[in-house]
């Protein structure tokens, strides 16, 4: 897990956005929250426009921050599954509110 001791945050929102900010992290977390365990390829198909490099980076960061769990199965072909950790599950109400806000305001675009 990343060490945030050296970094001082002005407020808790800044810390939260450090962990889940950006274009892809909230969407990855949303799909894992709604669909449960997903394999890498399944996540990639859900995120139209994301590159392999970006998805790999985002998954590694979410895992390092303790928000998702990566389960690797040593078999042929290799199998890796991603799921929310207990800490990651605490973000579900926030993601649900973001979804609700988006549904209410998307039609105005």
Automatic annotation (TrEMBL):
| Residues annotated as domain HTH hxlR-type | 11-109
Q: Which GO terms describe its molecular function?
A: DNA binding
Pfam families recorded: HxlR
Its keywords, alphabetically, are: DNA-binding, Transcription, Transcription regulation
| Name of the featured protein | Transcriptional regulator
